[in-house]
Amino acid sequence: MSMEVDYKLTFGACARITQATMDDPDASDFQPTVQFLSIKMLPSNKADTPDRYRLIVSDGKYFVQAMLATQLNELIQNGAIKKHTVAVLEKYTSNVVQNKRLVIVLALRVVGDTPEKIGTPESLEGSVKPSAESAAGSSAVTAPPKVQAPAPHAARPNQTNERATPIFPIEALSPFQNKWTIKARVTQKSDIKHYSNQKGEGKLFNVTFMDDTGEIKATAFNHVVDELYDRIEEGKVYYISRARVNIAKRKFSNVDNQYELSLEKSTEIEECLDTTDLPTVKYNFVQLKDLEAAAKDAMIDVIGIVKETHDLGEVISRSTQKTIPKRDLTLVDRSGYSVRLTLWGEQAKKYTATDHPVIAVKGVKVGDFGGKSLSMVSSSTMSLNPDITDAHALKGWFDSAGSEASFQSHSLSGGGGAFQGGGINLSEMKTTQEVKDMNLGSDKPEYFSSRVVITHLRAENIMYPACPSEGCNKKVTDLGDAWKCEKCERTFENPEYRYLVSFCGADHTGQLWLQGFNDVGLIAFGMSANELKNLEDQDRDAYDSAVKRVISGVFNVACRAKQDTYNDMTRVRYGINRMIPLDFTVDTSHVLDQLSAYA
DNA sequence: CCCCCCCC
């Protein structure tokens, strides 16, 4: 029944692969045929770290232990490799880990399966002492084993200042090893970030290194930043050694490695010009159409045409009060969707392309404001008109057809389609009860829109006397004959009144107290706070009726909900970002749209 | 040793 296949194992393979290192010129030529005698899963004790597999590799005469690179785990999980499988080892390496040699299989090709063990192999480690090794397998080998020496051989034969450290695959780095060099491409380099905490001021930057076995994040602090920042360029390849390997805090990184590197004063980094064997960034593009299904905060890769470049703007960070430049781009792709991509900081300032370039971004964060949006984070990378197939195809499509196409928008600023009502998404309105039921994180705000009727407003302190200097808005104190701003250290003859309003907004499910600033008051009262203040001082009846007019008004409001702790009391504050009187024409047509969707 | 990734 079964076909008799006579597999020829490569005798001497075990001794030889035990000597292999990544840049060993012979190792890539020596692709032995071996048999796996056993496969054992070493379960990961961490949710974000894959299980590992240990193989017993036999050359028919000897066997050694080896680890399967985790990117090959699938071969075991899908049954391609099992006990007694015969395979050609195409790529492998060997390191000393805790004084033990450990072979890592990086690539292999399955040749076939046999029902049993070939030959009667014995343990290479057990039978062979390092000093006596040459006697062990040399008679039968197809490639001569190297003379085993306790010290690893030189890593970089062509470099003048050789180090006695082997080139390691990134995948094999661990805190247990200190003599190693990796050869890796910088796929991401951050700006220099400054921080201050209890221990004082500091600065840092980080990079992502990648080789064909994996990637790893590296961070440099303080004086090491000065030393290395300008010497490391995104896209280039370097030899890196004598960095510290630490356990990665993975919740802060989307780099797929359980370890990360700390670049120290003693770390050696040297550019490598032979980059042929190093992979470039790999993308896993999500079509813009499929963003609908992307989870908030997911890190994804996207490629699109820049349909629109918005002006440079800025935001004031609510947590740090710092002003941060930002620029929105509208990306489109062949799936017929558009999405907003926000660039920050230097990248926002430096972006100047005026045509419609292709942009490929890796590791951008998905937001859910008014639909779906994308935001660059410090570990994201952006590539303009990258020389990759997807980019050429996209450019061809846009030039021939795409530039005339219309797109379904994922986000508010993109305009069109789902968003109407003066920028408030009528399709995603929440009732006041739904607002109260929202799950709020302890520090992150949530945004929502509602339609409410104003039932009350806090009558006292609708307005406050504010500093009239541009952008100050601070409350000023009455000196009797003048008004003083403590912040600007100036006095003014008259203040500029500004609104600070508390509305009670109700719907059929309940009510919420909503805070609004000056822009909201302007909409609600239809006059400036100065004018309302004049009425209050000079025409009390007119003032009362102006206030009463707001009561019972119906508004669409775009709001921000945020937890707030004051005097040990935690409560949720609701701020109005935008307030628009109900427009019956817009609202009715929206209701008609909804009805027709049911028909 | 950062770990915030900002705003609507």
TrEMBL record:
<feature type="domain" description="Replication factor-A protein 1 N-terminal">
    <location>
        <begin position="9"/>
        <end position="111"/>
    </location>
</feature>
<dbReference type="GO" id="GO:0003677">
    <property type="term" value="F:DNA binding"/>
</dbReference>
<keyword id="KW-0863">Zinc-finger</keyword>
<dbReference type="InterPro" id="IPR031657">
    <property type="entry name" value="REPA_OB_2"/>
</dbReference>
<dbReference type="InterPro" id="IPR004365">
    <property type="entry name" value="NA-bd_OB_tRNA"/>
</dbReference>
<dbReference type="InterPro" id="IPR012340">
    <property type="entry name" value="NA-bd_OB-fold"/>
</dbReference>
<dbReference type="InterPro" id="IPR013955">
    <property type="entry name" value="Rep_factor-A_C"/>
</dbReference>
<dbReference type="GO" id="GO:0008270">
    <property type="term" value="F:zinc ion binding"/>
</dbReference>
<dbReference type="GO" id="GO:0006281">
    <property type="term" value="P:DNA repair"/>
</dbReference>
<dbReference type="GO" id="GO:0007004">
    <property type="term" value="P:telomere maintenance via telomerase"/>
</dbReference>
<comment type="similarity">
    <text>Belongs to the replication factor A protein 1 family.</text>
</comment>
<feature type="domain" description="Replication factor A C-terminal">
    <location>
        <begin position="447"/>
        <end position="589"/>
    </location>
</feature>
<dbReference type="InterPro" id="IPR007199">
    <property type="entry name" value="Rep_factor-A_N"/>
</dbReference>
<dbReference type="GO" id="GO:0006310">
    <property type="term" value="P:DNA recombination"/>
</dbReference>
<dbReference type="Pfam" id="PF01336">
    <property type="entry name" value="tRNA_anti-codon"/>
</dbReference>
<keyword id="KW-0862">Zinc</keyword>
<dbReference type="GO" id="GO:0005662">
    <property type="term" value="C:DNA replication factor A complex"/>
</dbReference>
<dbReference type="Pfam" id="PF04057">
    <property type="entry name" value="Rep-A_N"/>
</dbReference>
<keyword id="KW-0539">Nucleus</keyword>
<comment type="subunit">
    <text>Component of the heterotrimeric canonical replication protein A complex (RPA).</text>
</comment>
<dbReference type="GO" id="GO:0000781">
    <property type="term" value="C:chromosome, telomeric region"/>
</dbReference>
<feature type="domain" description="OB">
    <location>
        <begin position="180"/>
        <end position="263"/>
    </location>
</feature>
<dbReference type="InterPro" id="IPR047192">
    <property type="entry name" value="Euk_RPA1_DBD_C"/>
</dbReference>
<feature type="domain" description="Replication protein A OB">
    <location>
        <begin position="288"/>
        <end position="385"/>
    </location>
</feature>
<protein>
    <recommendedName>
        <fullName>Replication protein A subunit</fullName>
    </recommendedName>
</protein>
<keyword id="KW-0235">DNA replication</keyword>
<keyword id="KW-0479">Metal-binding</keyword>
<keyword id="KW-0238">DNA-binding</keyword>
<dbReference type="InterPro" id="IPR004591">
    <property type="entry name" value="Rfa1"/>
</dbReference>
<feature type="region of interest" description="Disordered">
    <location>
        <begin position="117"/>
        <end position="163"/>
    </location>
</feature>
<comment type="function">
    <text>As part of the replication protein A (RPA/RP-A), a single-stranded DNA-binding heterotrimeric complex, may play an essential role in DNA replication, recombination and repair. Binds and stabilizes single-stranded DNA intermediates, preventing complementary DNA reannealing and recruiting different proteins involved in DNA metabolism.</text>
</comment>
<dbReference type="GO" id="GO:0006260">
    <property type="term" value="P:DNA replication"/>
</dbReference>
<dbReference type="Pfam" id="PF08646">
    <property type="entry name" value="Rep_fac-A_C"/>
</dbReference>
<dbReference type="Pfam" id="PF16900">
    <property type="entry name" value="REPA_OB_2"/>
</dbReference>
